[in-house]
Amino acid sequence: MDESVTFRSAAPRLMDRVRETLRFYHYAYNTEKSYIEWILRFIRFNAKKHPREMGKFEIERFLSHLAVNRNVAASTQNQAFNAIMFLYNKVLDTPMELDIRAKRTSKAKRLPTVLCKDEAKSLLSCMSGTAKILAGLMYGSGLRSLEVVRLRIHDIDFENNQIYVRDAKGGKDRTTIFPDTLHQPVREQIEAV
User: Fold this and answer.
1) Per the count of CB atoms within 10 A, which of 5, 17, 169, 172 is most buried?
2) Is pTM, for the whole model, over 0.90?
């Protein structure tokens, strides 16, 4: 037998199991990437110990570190918490207490900056071509960037002024308005493509 041949363990590696489990539960690809990154950060933070060797104390310490030392937003801390809970509850099949008492982020919540109508018109007037159409759909129909990129011809209903958004955030379908002002540019784009 050749000594240079190495055999892989029949048991899947932890991160492979995380990926498989995320896909089994039909998590979005972006969520998969995010959860994997948080799980790896959690493991690295705890000196690369296997999660089975860790518990509530290490989770609280990691989440508190994010709030105190990294000054992350509350939503970021929640995402890290959800990734770690997924790891324990779904991948390792080790029910973890939800009574995690980590220090919470104290950042003040701020309202999002929203362009007024004139600012949006000014911004759109500086654009041209496909970028202008996509930005117009995002502004006029309230589409997210990924939603507008995924649009297909049969998702656009010119007669009823509607756009069908398929497999949107949370895996749900929805409809939104299709502004009259975008009908002609969208028709021209469809013909050009």
Assistant:
1) 17
2) no
For 151, phi then psi, to 5°, come to -55, 140
The domain ranges of the chain are 14-91, 117-192
Q: What is the pLDDT of residues 117-147, one digit of tens each?
A: 899 889 999 999 999 999 999 999 999 988 9
117-192 — its CATH code? 1.10.443.10
pLDDT digits (tens, 9 = 90+) for 150-193: 899 999 999 999 999 988 777 788 999 999 999 999 999 999 88
CATH assignment of 14-91, among 3.40.50.1360, 1.10.150.130, 3.40.50.300, 3.40.190.170: 1.10.150.130
Inter-axis angle of helices 29-45 and 74-86, to 10 degrees?
90
* Strands 156-157, 162-165: pairing kind: antiparallel
